[in-house]
Amino acid sequence: MRLLIIFALLSCIVNSLPLLFQDWSFQPLSLFNFVKKDRLIKLSPTIYQLISEDDKLKLRKKNIKFMDITEQIPIEEAYERGLVNKPNAFSWFDSLFFIGSKQVTHLSKQIPVYNYPKTTKYNSEVKELYKNIDTDLMFKKLSKFTSFFSRYYKSESGAQSAEWLYNELEKIIKPVNDKVNITKIHHNGWDQFSIIVSIPGEIEDKVVIGAHQDSANLILPSVMRAPGADDDGSGSITTLESLRLIIDSYNKNLYKPYNTLEFHWYSAEEGGLLGSVDVFSRYSNAGEVVVGMLQQDMTGYTQGSIDANVEPHFGLINDYTSIDLNNFIKLIIKSYNSIPYHESQCGYACSDHASALENGYPSAFLIESEMKYTNKYIHSTLDTIDRLDWDHIKEHVKLTVAFAFELSLAKELH
Ligand code: BES
Ligand code: ZN
């Protein structure tokens, strides 16, 4: 009995520390075993951990990145494969100090090597499309997208914003909807679905362009407003506008892909890449081939670069991405864009390209700038549309259309 009281007292003290210090990052991971640790996360290519749903937010606040793979590997299997230890009587103590993860020797999936084009071939056709880029239209669409109270994947407005996006995409593909497919990908455990628009090519190999549709206010995601204009409303609208231009060209018989071209809007990136992990693990289980995936998460903020007196540029992420695909993107930027790229690092599992790579598909991540100059207002009520630079978003659209054209028309990649 006495032990129990000491235990309860200790719990109260530890849990009130963050209140005392006004520092939420101080809060330890779930203290006791009766807080269900039923989420399996991956923190690096070799580190897995079992944590609770609440712990995920605590990790986010500490800026620790992870991939939630609970749906992909059943917990019993994780124990059997030795990815994580079975909890024991002392696990609550371990979690105080964030012990409990263990290093495993991991056989990561081999990423196939493809012969990406070494020169661009469709310069005049692609540049013709650029005349139709409509930044006013993009502004209008992003205004609506950011007007949902939050696009948090577990919120009602997050499901509504997905419906709105789906309807917009349906309108875009309407003239060709007998040939182009649109699919809602429903996920297990929350209502906001991911969306895939697919333009079938002559072969089934896929080129994928992605962005995440969800937003999150990291103070209190379920109750606070999260406009998510830059993160990743900007990437979602960049992708939407690129699709609009390509569909227009397809409708006029000026373009027909050789490889199947897909546009993805993932749900629940902010929950640990949940939507994209689901999509790419389904592809992998079905034996689908993805020759290249390009993620764009945050495409519109340049004030960080301007303040530092640095030229506007793309941030090309060179860690946990495909070297060959990055080289192809460098070629595209040099041939099609009026701004350069700067290479930068984002860490493990920082956006949905990591889910593609994890499932054996070469992927790349292009962001608004080097990491150090990116938008500091994300994950808060201040991630608003007025802070975005539409000339910069336009450069991302130019890049996307060129990437889509050149790679979807590339033959002999194998
Ligand atoms: N857009 C961010 C990634 C990011 C953050 C890019 C800061 C540039 C600067 C993304 O939506 C995000 O928040 N990712 C999480 C990881 C995710 C797996 C939970 C992160 O970076 O912590
Ligand atoms: Zn984010």
Automatic annotation (TrEMBL):
A GO BP annotation: proteolysis
Protein's UniProt keywords contain Hydrolase: yes
Metal-binding is among the record's keywords: yes
Signal peptide bounds: 1-16
EC number, UniProt record: 3.4.-.-
Record InterPro entries: M28_fam (IPR045175), Peptidase_M28 (IPR007484)
Superkingdom of the organism of origin: Eukaryota
Needed co-factor(s): Zn(2+)
Any one GO molecular function term: metal ion binding
Keywords tagged on the record: Aminopeptidase, Hydrolase, Metal-binding, Protease, Signal, Zinc
Domain Peptidase M28: 195-403
One Pfam family in the UniProt entry: Peptidase_M28
Native source species: Candida verbasci
Name of the protein in its database record: Peptide hydrolase
Coiled-coil stretches: none
Family: Belongs to the peptidase M28 family. M28E subfamily.
